[in-house]
Amino acid sequence: MSTFHYGLLIAVTCSFVYSQNVNNVRLVQHREYMTKVLTEVGLILEEREWCNLKIPEFQMEIDQSILNWEVEGKVSFQNGFVISIQRVEILESSLNQIWTWNNNDGHGNVEVRGTLRFHDMTAGFDVIADFNQQIFISSATYLYPLISFDFSIFRNTETTETRVVVTGNQPRSVNKLEFLPVNNVTNVIRALYNTNSTFTGITSWASEILAPIAEDVITNRVEFPVVCYNCPVS
């Protein structure tokens, strides 16, 4: 761990002392802080089990000739959930702090950023197709190479009010659905499936699941860093 040299250290619970002569204001060990927060979030998610990360039901409409078959109907993807995540990673380059200032009273606000990434996440679905007034039922899995969540922790250094904002991102993938059993129906669905269909459901975990967990972590588990005023440039 790096050694930090600071000037005047003042706990963030104290009032922010403003002066035109105060320069180089920073949080001490902000990277270690955000690493602890994101590690706790990941551990809590794992303790709750990945299968509790649900994907809301979604549908696709089909009305076209494909694979030598005239198909009209819809497909429902139900009971979606996460089967496994191969690796959870904290993106080191994302760990940073950004300061803004209130020009009226000189009070500072700091944002601490960090990104949590899920590598090779597999999700499963029950798939029900209603094609040409016939019902076909199967199961499918999809491998997401990468899902990422950007965390921002905002702190008012005067009031010590702290809040968390999390946003999710599901990059486009060229992977295909994998079905059991495989037949003409599943081949049609596989060919026409839009990989962005789950974007809204997966990215909603950011505000509905991850943000509340992070709020608990920063409130009850990980202490916010102290603020360093007139810090030497390092």
List the main descriptive attributes of the protein structure presented here:
234 residues; alpha+beta; Bactericidal permeability-increasing protein, domain 1; 7-stranded antiparallel sheet; 3-stranded antiparallel sheet; 4 helices; elongated; disordered N terminus
Note the topology.
Layout: E1 8-10, E2 26-27, H1 30-48, E3 54-55, E4 58-66, E5 69-101, E6 108-131, E7 134-156, E8 162-169, E9 178-180, H2 184-192, H3 199-203, H4 205-220, E10 227-229
Describe this structure in words.
With 234 residues, the protein is α+β, with helices and mostly antiparallel strands. It has one domain: Bactericidal permeability-increasing protein, domain 1, CATH 3.15.10. The chain is built from 4 helices and 10 strands. The chain has helices spanning 30-48, 184-192, 199-203, 205-220, and strands at residues 8-10, 26-27, 54-55, 58-66, 69-101, 108-131, 134-156, 162-169, 178-180, 227-229. The strands form 2 sheets. Strands 3, 4, 5, 6, 7, 8 and 9 form a 7-stranded antiparallel β-sheet that branches. Strand 4 (58-66) and strand 5 (69-101) form a beta hairpin. Helix 1 (30-48) crosses helix 4 (205-220). The radius of gyration is 24 Å and the shape is elongated. Mean pLDDT is 88; it is low at 1-22.
